[in-house]
């Protein structure tokens, strides 16, 4: 081939090369746009973290209120706990075989030794916590139970010291004294105080604190983790057997099948489903928000539960009790958040640069969150002091809706 023909051949190949490169570039651009479209579509379909927070608040509070109502009307709290655990056992087994929600369990070294040394002891403590937490509804109001639960971090910290998982500090001691003082005032101001109920609630707090510390010793120290659903997958069968043994000696001799019919089979099924959905909501919430938001949400969830229970059951809350609960909540905030994070919240609130153009999106979200929590706290304060009278006034104004005596 002559040089001229070779040059002519190269010249004719250049447009083909350029066309191929252009086609390849257009293909890459199309793939990139398609990927962006899929990402935008997935982000559009994904739910906002606020949805998971609200779902957790709803199922947590609804489970407690539902249990209280069912136990008040039907009794047999230990048998009810057995029913919850049997339902949870069946539901987690079904989810493990049909979904990927429990795939994290495959990373756990499950064997006979692990089961005996970890699952059974933690399951025993979990069973004791569930039994005490349900039996206490027979003796105490929901609002007072929530006030007593404010002392839970104190007991957890005490057992952490006892097992050498943490070293005591003066700041922690001050927080403990503050929370204990607040809970003591709330207990002293309780009108319907019951020593039996108080001891059951204390027992539930102790069992739960020991369970959390044991989880930290047995699992966290070895780098193992269990989300709420995986925990339920392993603990529910163990707890169901233990609770059934307790029920055999206490409630089953007095139980008749007519009691279940009186409570309503549909209500029992719905109650177990709501309790199980709380664990699903907890799993969905993990990783969606920061620890600070979770702490604040948990505190205001408890306050919201107090106000709702006061309105539903028209529970009398004294001024001393409300003052003690406020002190306990302040101590709980100080213990959970710490001085630095509280100072950050204060600086965020008192910041003068509140203009939208000068404010970062993260700061705007914090201010919106703080505003919502303040609104909830105001409604809570009003409801606690005016709840029973407000319900009575509504009953008097609309007798056709509420019925007349």
From TrEMBL:
Sugar phosphate transporter domain: residues covered: 50-336
TM regions (residue ranges): 50-70, 76-95, 115-140, 146-166, 173-189, 195-220, 232-252, 264-286, 293-313, 319-337, 366-385
GO CC term, one of those recorded: endoplasmic reticulum membrane
Subcellular location: Endoplasmic reticulum membrane
Keywords: Membrane, Transmembrane, Transmembrane helix
UniProt xrefs under InterPro entries: Sugar_P_trans_dom, TPT_transporter
Membrane topology of this protein: Multi-pass membrane protein
Annotated coiled-coil segments of the chain: none
Similarity field: Belongs to the TPT transporter family. SLC35D subfamily.
Quaternary structure annotation from Swiss-Prot or TrEMBL: Homooligomer.
Protein role: Involved in the import of GDP-mannose from the cytoplasm into the Golgi lumen.
Protein name: Sugar phosphate transporter domain-containing protein
Organism of origin: Clonostachys byssicola
